[in-house]
Write a structure and sequence with these properties.
alpha/beta; Rossmann fold; 2 domains; six-stranded mixed sheet; five-stranded parallel sheet; 13 strands; globular; disordered N terminus
Length: 380
């Protein structure tokens, strides 16, 4: 049986507090509670929704799933294993499947920043021809290739992360509510900002990365009606080098810090390392993305400036997909990995946000209950 990660939550109390937060695009109102003031600087102007006691459902023990017959292929996005972010999260899910379910045959292949659609199609075709199933396409950039290749191999199972446009019967989409997790780190940024000025650096200006920006802006505005927010992208849509250019990430983030921002959130793949470098040089703070980057070896030298990371649980989605495929329960997968199933969230490694966890949990519960609706496009 597939493990359940859904969190069973009581209805959120304090209706007045939730009305205060309202829709995530609202800027919040003045008058922080004493608890807020104890944990935050003068930037916070809104009372956080009250966090209620919540019970977390434990994973069902069930029968151990044997996935040893599956031949798993990972078609990585730009950066591949070792990017300390998106691809590493996918790799972690497969690594856990190897440890827990006996998967032994795994092949990995990585996209280059400048490759065309033909190269992606060739990669997927080769993996399918070699007998791999499932083939996990890590990233929306594979959508056209999966659309072209999957019908040619009807007995091969495909999964694609961050895209639900392919409707073939042998294709499973693994999509997330990135805006919800980003909302929470936007709140955290305001609570930790001394200058009441926060920033966002996106890798490539696409609708997907705009979801990260949208949530971050909404969360920051929900916590403060006076916060200043600066947003930048490294490259325009179509130029995917923005996900693998730490030097450019450093330059953009350094400019934001120089302009007064003291907390910057990055959603830039491997380019995020440059944002951490800039934060370290500015003696400021940064927010990681996808994985718990405080614990990532490839950015360990900058861990002291990583106050939290927005967790996009690609590892959970990949693991659950392999488990469901092996147990013939694909229909049990959530349609979208959101806060309610711990598909997104925030990390607490390093202890830098321990003092504001009650506020973050209050906002989290308000989003899950529907009292706060987080936009998916930036509301500036």
């Amino acid at each position: 049986m597939r493990k359940t990660r859904a969190t069973t939550l009581a209805a959120t109390a304090m209706a007045a507090a939730l009305a205060l937060a309202g829709c995530a695009k609202d800027s919040g109102t003045s008058g922080s509670s004493n608890n807020d003031n104890a944990a935050a600087g003068s930037c916070v102007t809104a009372t956080a929704p009250a966090a209620t006691a919540a019970s977390t459902s434990s994973s069902a023990a069930g029968e151990r799933v044997d996935a040893s017959k599956l031949r798993v292929a990972l078609a990585f996005d730009i950066g591949g294993r070792g990017d300390a972010s998106f691809n590493d999260a996918a790799a972690a899910g497969v690594d856990k499947a190897k440890a827990d379910m006996g998967v032994t045959d795994v092949r990995e292949s990585t996209a280059s920043p400048t490759e065309d659609e033909a190269a992606k199609e060739q990669r997927l075709t080769q993996l399918a021809t070699d007998g791999y199933s499932p083939i996990l396409a890590i990233g929306f950039a594979y959508a056209s290739a999966v659309q072209a290749v999957a019908p040619k191999f009807p007995n091969t199972q495909f999964a694609i992360v961050d895209d639900d446009s392919v409707t073939a019967p042998n294709v499973t989409p693994l999509v997330f509510s990135e805006e919800q997790g980003s909302f929470l780190v936007g709140v955290a940024a305001v609570y930790k900002s001394k200058n009441c000025h926060v920033g966002f650096v996106g890798g490539v200006n696409t609708p997907l990365i705009q979801k990260f920006e949208a949530g971050f802006i909404a969360g920051a505005k929900a916590a403060s009606n006076k916060v200043q927010i600066t947003s930048d992208y490294l490259t325009p849509a179509g130029d995917n080098t923005g996900f693998q250019d730490p030097a450019k990430g450093n330059i953009k983030a350094a400019a934001e810090f120089s302009a007064g921002a003291d907390v910057v959130y990055q959603a830039a793949g491997a380019s995020g390392k440059g944002v951490f470098q800039a934060a370290s040089a500015a003696k400021s703070l940064a927010i990681g993305v996808d994985s718990d980057q405080y614990n990532q070896a490839t950015v360990a030298e900058y861990k002291d400036v990583i106050m939290t990371s927005m967790l996009k649980r690609v590892d959970v989605a990949v693991y659950d997909y392999i488990q469901a495929l092996a147990s013939n329960t694909l229909s049990s997968l959530p349609k979208r990995f959101d806060l309610s199933v711990d598909g997104v969230g925030y990390s607490t490694s390093g202890g830098k946000i321990d003092d504001i966890k009650p506020q973050l949990e209050g906002y989290k519960q308000a989003i899950i209950s529907g009292s706060i609706t987080v936009p998916t496009t930036p509301q500036k």
